[in-house]
Amino acid sequence: AAAIQTDDCARAFIFSFGSKALRRPIETADSDALFAFFLDGKQEGFASGIEMVVAALLQHPMFIYRVETGAPGSVVGQPGLRQLTGHELAQRLSYNLWGTLPDDELVAAAANSELSTPEGLRSHAERMLQDDRAAPMFADFIGQWLFLDHLGSVPKDATLHPTYTAEIPGLLKQELQLFLQDQVQNGGDLNSLFTANFGFLNERLAAFYGVPGVTGEAFVKTPMPPEAQRFGLMTFAGLLSVEGTVQGVSLSGSARTYPIGRGRFIRERLACETVPPPIPNATEEAGAKEAIDALNQQYGGGEHVPPRVFFEKVTSTNPVCANCHGFLEPLGFALETFGADGLARANDIDGSPALQAGNYASLGNQSTDLVGAISGPAELGQKLAQSETVKACLADNLAQYTLGRRLKSEDFECLTGAAAPSAPGATQLKELYLGLVTSDLYRVRKFD
Question: pTM for this structure?
């Protein structure tokens, strides 16, 4: 209304809208500059003046970017290091967890210096983790961490896996997102992450798993029957059926499983080991090409060769291949009781009994807590849950996702809170995140 179209009203708008757009209190210099824009536009009317203010704010670097300058002199004796300000930490938390600007409670906490201490930061991070607005973050993190963004990129063989229809991959991804979210919000620890026997099903996904009693479109936390062989994260169909990733790691193909990819996935994504790249033209090595051709002819193409047969006839016997494949397939074989569709099975694609066990060979001195024979998916889950290597790797992956960059060697000195010692398997997933956001790695930045 014309009655409120005054200069004071314009200044109030600059303060309220500007504070939200810049995600920090409006300073005098900001206010004066924006008011000058208003006065310039006001010559054509009040609305034109406000339009000029909005246009200026939407082009402001502080709006377009999340700028972090830190507080000079805030780290004693280290002029190149600065603690982030309360408003900068509020931005970090809000965009990390909710993907949007800070809410009023977080803004007030920044203004009252509540975020200047690890305790205050922890309190608000915990509040935000429990909020449903964090759901997209869980989905995005698990999509990147577990390669789920590629789930469904290759259709399954309809003859061998008729229930794995086009709608299934999206439902499987939602199940894994809800599982991780539940673990974080409800006190799940590493034991639960890798050994839990429940899932999140709606009617359609329950039918896929063969679980009775679930109706409707909503996802419900549901105990899985023993025949589903649900033993934590590595036994979710949404993970075991992933194929065609840009990183070159597929856990299954359209018809058969890929123990190579499953073993590599555990080593690289769960244990943070470095797996040597494939040897160029290894399949052309003497003896390998002939063996592969013979198997393809016998089984009607590579996708129909049982993985254990390929391992026995090619990768474990050829000296060029055996070096690496000796510590990849045996670990993946612990999951061979799950087919390319991620469902529990009794037989391999050729009708022979699926392998029941694997053997995790050591590579140098890496992951020594995971070396040895593994009797199947249940024992694999237990070993992953008890592994300090896996725990540290999960903390590293979470830190890289949150910070948006790969960690450097010096970063690990500042990450101690995220991977603090605890009873084997007992570390709550929530504590991994809270340890990260209260660490110096999150609260302090280096400035040249």
Answer: 0.88
